[in-house]
């Protein structure tokens, strides 16, 4: 495992574990998973050196936090648990109450990283951050992070908190390379952390799917898996397969390794099994050469998926009689 030094958190493993699926029935993570596989995955994660576990109060309406807290057991005070508050009426008293609810579900006295889940478009960070600052001063949390923030909003959050907001959790992958433009350079310059969620684009970057082989289930609702977007993704996926073969790896591992080649970036893929967890963690030991990184970056920037409305129109046309 490789690590990143983050102010207020210490050494953070470059590959963490995202737990938003814990308890989410639509992904097949029901009660049986919670009482069995989740504990096995978390235990194996610790054996492999994983020390970053991400959750949120809205994941399964608190169920993810409860499952993670139980699964960590005595390890819960030895790792970096990152949770999030959804910023509805985020006044200081509400922030304190919601943090306590998350801490209780996680069975923690102190949450190492507490994040604002979304940028509230109606409430400025000057209203939100005093509550977070109070939690810092009371040592209820170790550091403040944000999620889904633009660079401009991240800077405003810094100013409102009066100290660095150490992390920004964003959708980031070869299929969504937008953070390359401004967030990654800012994180490098300011010694901050980018937490890449959905780093495999819900499995698109595993290289399994194509315009001729589309997924079913909940993935079918993702615009990336529309026929036209899968056609447009073909050059990127072909490149992933080629580089993976050259490194004796799998396309998904190369996709994770590309993110890990960037300064200040950690990845938090989910895992439905111990085997998937081990597969993801192994990507931390895959060092891509400069040419591979450059070619993947170029292919990511060249990928131009069509929008959701156009994807829905495409699906409607597919159902029309020929």
Judged by helices, strands and strand pairing, the structural class is alpha/beta
The CATH class turns out to be Alpha Beta
CATH architecture: Alpha-Beta Barrel
The CATH superfamily is: NADP-dependent oxidoreductase domain
Strand order of the largest sheet: 3-4-5-6-7-8-9-10
Cα Rg: 20 Å
Q: What can be said about the biggest beta sheet?
A: 8 strands, parallel
Number of strands: 10
Mean pLDDT: 91
Give the helix level as a range of percent.
40-55%
Number of discrete domains: 1
- Unreliable sequence segments: 311-318
Could you tell me the CATH topology label: TIM Barrel
* DSSP helical segment count: 12
Can you write the helix and strand succession as a string?
EEEHHEHEHEHEHEHEHHEHHH
Globular, elongated, flat, extended or rod-shaped: what is the shape? Answer: globular
The first-to-last residue Cα distance is 53 Å
Strand content: 5-15%
How would you characterize this protein structure?
This protein has 322 residues and is an alpha/beta fold. Helix content is 43%, strand content 14%. The chain is built from 12 helices and 10 strands. The strands form 2 sheets. An 8-stranded parallel beta sheet has the order 3-4-5-6-7-8-9-10. The protein has a two-stranded antiparallel sheet with strand order 1-2.
